[in-house]
Amino acid sequence: MRIFIPLLSAAAITIGVIAAPASANEDLSSWKTAVVKAVAKKQRYPRSALAREIEGKAKVRLVVRADGTIANHEVVEATGESILDKEIPRLVKRLNPLPSLPAGREELSFVLPLDWSLN
User: Fold this and answer.
1) Helix 82-95 with 22-42: angle, nearest 10 deg
2) Would you say the pTM of this structure is higher than 0.85?
3) Geometric angle at alpha carbon 65, from 23 and 24, rounded to 5°
4) What are the backbone dihedrals phi and psi of residue 16, each rounded to the nearest 5 degrees, phi first?
5) I need a labelling partner for 58 at 20 to 30 A (CA). Which of 13, 25, 74, 84 fits?
6) Using CA atoms, how far apart are residues 58 and 114, in angstroms rounded to an integer?
7) First to last CA, the chain
8) What is the pLDDT of residues 61-86, one digit of tens each?
9) SS3 28
């Protein structure tokens, strides 16, 4: 059994942006890539879920302040597996703080997809 925590792409992170200049979009794209790397580094597969071969997907809305501090999180779509759902706030705690937001942004809300899969 192989553990597989898929690397999400920066495009998978859903951020609502209303018409921004090209340089702002590039900065946001770089920030999203840094977030993806942070998630890949800090996401864990709970041992009890591994032992029972439990898989799941979730979506979490994060609100991030300019300095990268996660101000709030909300599970938008739970995995339906209590072992994995209990891991979500632990992951958010490990991720806090995220990289600082691009210049000019005071706060940002986005949806982060999470996936725990076994291959």
Assistant:
1) 120
2) no
3) 5
4) -80, 115
5) 25
6) 5
7) 6
8) 999 999 999 999 999 999 999 999 99
9) helix
